[in-house]
Amino acid sequence: MVGARRLRVAAVALGAVGGGFSALYALLSEQGRRARLAIGVPEAPPPRADGVYTPAHLHGIRPSLRFAVVGDSMAAGLGVDREDELPGVLMARGLAEEADRPVRLTTYAISGSTTNDLPAQVDRVLQDPPDVALVIIGANDVTTRVSIGTAVTVLATEVRRLRLAGIGVVVGTCPDLGAIRPIAQPLRSVARSWSLRLAKEQKTAVEQAGGVAVPLADLLSPEFLARPGDLFSADRFHPNAAGYDAAAAILLAPLCSVAGVWHGGPLPEWPQRSALAEARRPTTRIVAWLNRKHRQQK
Predict the structure, then answer these.
(1) Is 35 within a domain?
(2) Catalytic residue among 73, 195, 233, 257
(3) How many domains does the chain contain in total?
(4) Does the active-site annotation cover 235?
(5) Which position among 131, 236, 238, 278 has the lowest Cβ density within 10 Å, counted as fewest Cβ atoms?
(6) Which domain holds residue 274?
(7) Which candidate in 50, 64, 100, 235 is catalytic?
(8) Catalytic member of 111, 131, 221, 238
(9) Is 144 exposed, middle or buried (0-12, 13-18, 19+ CB in 10 A)?
């Protein structure tokens, strides 16, 4: 009889816990639905501006450096209005200035892609291998609930494929989805935790596969949290032109390094969030170039 009573108590307790999980799941599902409505569906894909970008003062005739952009909507540049605001264009121009040679940009990134879509993109890249590739991926893995294990395994495999082809690889890891204001709490905290866990695992996997990982969440999240109105586009999910400038400022140096054209000295270890200001300190020619571009646009 004592055993039966304990079983009944346990059943009631499990039912209460199960009911709590059901209620939480229903709440998170409803918040996800509302966030999707608030963010909306993009009216059009981002502009494309593939082609050759030449430094302002080219010294002599030099062969083009080939640069590929792979990944999701952040890699493709969703959220900007003009071609010259695209992250690929910003970085192609920065690479050209640092290398003192033309850079041929080819964009393979597709909005909405998850890591599971990378193999098809990499297949296209390997048909005409570039010198360097930038990969930005992960946000859609979180929003579509791709398991972290699956996402990391696929990413590592594709980075190895690119490296075996002699391509220098830089990966911008998953951004911090906790900075996305249309996502209500507690779903925003769940998304933040998941995205940061994914980013951490991505960094380890990319480095083991021979690529260079840039922790976008660590380096950009404080700024996006502090100035969401300045750095997010109208959908409040994708960066705007200023947001992509901020990302380009931290991605250009490692891109130049893996391309073998970096002349700014040894790259430091990536700092923690508390050292964000030091990380963005304008001491390199690349960041100075971005500052000049801003002044010219004003």
Answers:
(1) no
(2) 73
(3) 1
(4) yes
(5) 278
(6) 40-297
(7) 235
(8) 238
(9) exposed
